[in-house]
Amino acid sequence: MPTARIFQRPKNAMQSGKARTMTWSLEFEPAEPKRPDPLTGWAGSGDTREQVRLSFPTQEAAIAYCEAQGFDYELIPAPERKLKLQAYADNFR
């Protein structure tokens, strides 16, 4: 049985916005290791499930999908959001 990872995407570190951080993603564990292509040297494998990435509005919807399809799943908790309060005056202390 394929094993799926269910997680909530973290905020992009390069931007201040929180777009796509409220959705839950489902990715499959790789079934076989990647190996270099003899001609180009690029890493690849014959596992096509590695290319599948599904999005769900809630954690419960992602879990329900895995249970309906018979997939084993690993739930990765959402990263804790830390607020770093800053003031312009802190630059001069």
Give an overview of the whole structure.
This protein is α+β, with helices and mostly antiparallel strands and 93 residues long. It contains one helix and six strands; from the N terminus they run βββββαβ. The strands form two sheets. The protein has a four-stranded mixed β-sheet, with helices on one face. Strands 3-4 form a two-stranded antiparallel sheet. A hairpin with a 6-residue loop joins strand 3 and strand 4. The longest helix is centred in the last third of the chain and has 11 residues. The chain is flat, with a radius of gyration of 19 Å. The N and C termini lie far apart (57 Å). 6% of the residues are buried.
Q: What's the helix and strand layout?
A:
Elements: E1 3-8, E2 24-28, E3 35-36, E4 43-44, E5 53-56, H1 59-69, E6 72-75
Parallel strand pairs: 1-6
Antiparallel strand pairs: 1-2, 2-5, 3-4
Organism: Sphingomonas kyungheensis
Protein name: ETC complex I subunit
Main location: membrane
